[in-house]
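stuck on this chain:
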Amino acid sequence: MRKPSPSRRSFLALSLGLPIAGATLAACGSSGPGTENGGGGEGSGGSYWYLSVDPNETIRRNSLDRFNKAEPDSAIKGTAFQNDAYKEKIKVAIGAGQAPTVIWGWGGGGLASWVDAGAVEDLTPWFDENPDQKERRFPAAFAAATVDGKIYAVPAETVTPIVLFWNKQVFADAGLQPPTSWEDILALVPQFNDKKIAPFSLAGQSRWTNMMWLEFLFDRIGGPEIFQAVFDGTPNAWSDPAAIKALGEIQKLVKADGFIKGFSSITADTNADQALLTSGKAAMMLHGAWTYGSMKEESDIVSSGNLGYMNFPPVAGGTGDASNTYGNPGQYYSLSSKATEEQKTAAKEFFATQVLSDAEQTDWVNMAGQVPIVVGVDSKFEGLDDAEWLQFVYDTASTASVFSQSWDQALSPTAAEELLANIAKLFQLDITPEEFAESMNAVIGK
């Protein structure tokens, strides 16, 4: 894929914080490849691939079931996949011209590569014909769905910033206070280690979980402009002094045993990292807001009032705005350009009637504890057990000076894979910050 130049997309344009109606973000997920609904074979309305792991998988499946019940002659076949397995399978399917009718995605660089391959339909005319579908969604959600000024995906699902979670009971038992700065984080590490408690849980084998740490450290130390230079293709952008400092800080945390022992063998797909936090074996965890639902479902940390959460704290001397946050600006449903006209018609009807319908909004709020990207959805929070959490997510997204898309989704697939590979090496202390920068500078613009 050619470099996504500023004329095609702007990373900061994807991430600028907007008033409440413009708050954006996204989620990652996982579970087993091949969980299906909709009967055997492809439905008359085509097929739909999406991510698994409950409660998100159930919510997606329920929306599809509602559509298939209402439109039995246009039924769409749904199949769920683990996060990492899905990324590989969809890449192969698109390359072979065998993509599902409805393609679940993260927008950004991945979507731009599908557009370059001619794999997805231009949905701009559909939105022009259905202006209400655009007006009801957070405006900023469309940035990562847009390539060369055209909309190639339907923004869907929820706002999910990356959050620093902490176990209140663990902190209370240790007689410690949650961090308010990066320096506090480093100071807490030996105190928790002395008590045989891992300071941070981390599913390092998944790699993108490690990336979240760098996103915030780059931002807090040098501001979002540091990654903007990478995105713009500026030569040697990864060697910026602020970038080198951020890379060094994360290795400082690794060397101090800031993460659970054996973190590089833990995967996010199994929710093992969440279990370490909820069971009290780890004090803190940096992860997406989408994990709230599974932590609530699989443990009592939410019902007991012991789950704390905050935006990532500032770094002393850093120039980044402490309100900035990271994640993805929504989840995205694209339409395969290879689908038949009958299948395209069914998919568009699914988009119009079920994606972010009132029923689906209620499911996202009540079942997953997540905030849908719908203008005025905050009216659904009142009286809910999770109202405080939902308001936190809403406020984090809406008050952020900059809300940035996750790096591996903003970059082209080629550069993103190189990024994740080098992040794994960085966290294993196999390469220095300078070696990391050298490797990444070599794929800028690719």
In short: The CA atoms of residues 382 and 388 lie 9 Å apart. Residues 11-160+328-405 form a domain with the D-Maltodextrin-Binding Protein; domain 2 fold (CATH 3.40.190.10). The radius of gyration is 21 Å.
